[in-house]
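Design job #97: recover the sequence.
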């Protein structure tokens, strides 16, 4: 386990305030205990609040603030930026709402932004909209820190590391140093890693942004997103965007997300260990090519990933001979659902090329590793690979 920092004992490492990550996750954002009150107060359903006299906050109207969001924002902030009391978190109705809030609140006509060429599927749609608003969009791949070459005169650098679905990794500290030197802000899409895998603000980024639909909530039943930043002015811009667009999470979703955080540490430890076990088993197969998992010591991303990540995520990707072979494999799996998305406790996999849009081979499989018993999972995958290869 020496090559997987932070997954074994000593989970207090690097947490800064003397508590371990598991301890922090189970208590994150909870209010002070009060007699006869629940540990985690239930969702507050309110379009408006009693507000006699001067309309002062914190709670005036339901699109601006909600006490259930407040607790969740505090909780995520404690994981994204432990000990940094000035960091602010703003939660959104989805990951795309969070991403859009940063891009559209920070960029104006005439600005340039550098996006990853191999990032989340919806980024090209966003790029089209940014271009329509007179913003110059430059793209470069995540691997090899190629976005460095596009920074001149840019206002914002957008990183996604590890990238989805290719699992390339860039050196966040190096890109942040170059971007800040060039006068650009840096946002990191931290969806795949979760704050227990990687803390972008500690690596120097100005924004940590995520789709919490994935590993952070981890049950495949909630859409949610968040932005964390330690800069009050940047946070105000993001908050203003949420108010304008109204991309707000429902109180029930926010409460479910907060409830899910209590098991985040358990889930990611189990899922990352399972992902490594699966990747190691796949590495032995000669019907599998293009295997990627940043936690595998031989992976092209491993060295950079190990220098900035504490856990390597729950996604493994690989390529089977062709579309038909990949489809037979997915059909033959019994413990793994054929579904998109990732980060949930139940394993899912899909042939990514079915969507179009990602530059991946027809037999490319994105595998999201769940919390099953590793032996069961690996056995199911090996059996399905054999079935897909056999006579048909
Ligand atoms: C899923 C995903 C998003 C979008 O999140 P939604 O919650 O579906 O809006 C953004 N970035 C990455 C890396 C993702 O995987």
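Job complete. Output follows.
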């Amino acid at each position: 386990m020496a090559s997987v920092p932070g997954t074994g004992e000593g989970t207090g490492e690097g947490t800064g305030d003397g508590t371990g990550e598991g301890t922090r996750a189970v208590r994150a954002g909870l209010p002070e205990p009060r007699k006869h009150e629940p540990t985690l107060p239930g969702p507050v359903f309110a379009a408006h609040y009693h507000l006699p006299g001067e309309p002062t906050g914190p709670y005036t109207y339901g699109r601006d603030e909600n006490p259930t969001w407040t607790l969740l924002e505090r909780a995520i902030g404690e994981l994204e930026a432990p000990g940094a009391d000035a960091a602010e978190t703003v939660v959104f109705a989805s990951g795309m709402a969070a991403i859009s809030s940063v891009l559209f609140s920070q960029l104006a006509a005439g600005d340039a932004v550098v996006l990853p060429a191999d990032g989340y599927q919806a980024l090209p749609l966003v790029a089209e909209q940014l271009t329509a608003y007179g913003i110059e969009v430059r793209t470069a791949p995540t691997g090899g820190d190629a976005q460095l070459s596009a920074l001149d005169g840019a206002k914002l650098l957008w990183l996604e590391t590890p990238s989805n679905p290719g699992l390339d990794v860039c050196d966040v500290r190096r890109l942040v140093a170059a971007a800040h030197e060039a006068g650009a802000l840096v946002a990191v899409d931290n969806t795949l890693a979760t704050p227990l895998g990687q803390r972008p603000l500690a690596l120097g980024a100005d924004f940590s942004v995520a789709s919490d639909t994935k590993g952070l909530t981890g049950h495949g039943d909630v859409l949610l997103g968040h932005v964390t930043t330690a800069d009050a002015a940047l946070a105000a811009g993001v908050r203003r965007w949420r108010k304008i667009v109204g991309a707000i999470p429902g109180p029930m979703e926010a409460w479910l997300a907060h409830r899910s955080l209590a098991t985040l540490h358990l889930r990611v430890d189990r899922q990352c260990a399972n992902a490594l076990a699966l990747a190691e088993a796949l590495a032995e197969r000669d019907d599998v090519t293009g295997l990627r998992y940043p936690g595998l010591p031989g992976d092209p991303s491993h060295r950079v990933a190990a220098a900035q990540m504490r856990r390597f995520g729950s996604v493994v990707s690989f390529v089977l001979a062709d579309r038909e072979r990949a489809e037979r494999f997915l059909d033959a799996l019994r413990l793994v659902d054929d579904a998109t998305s990732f980060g949930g406790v139940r394993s899912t996999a899909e042939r990514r090329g079915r969507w179009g849009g990602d530059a991946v081979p027809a037999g490319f499989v994105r595998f999201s590793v769940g919390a099953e018993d590793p032996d069961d999972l690996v056995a199911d995958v090996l059996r399905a690979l054999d079935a897909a290869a056999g006579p048909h």
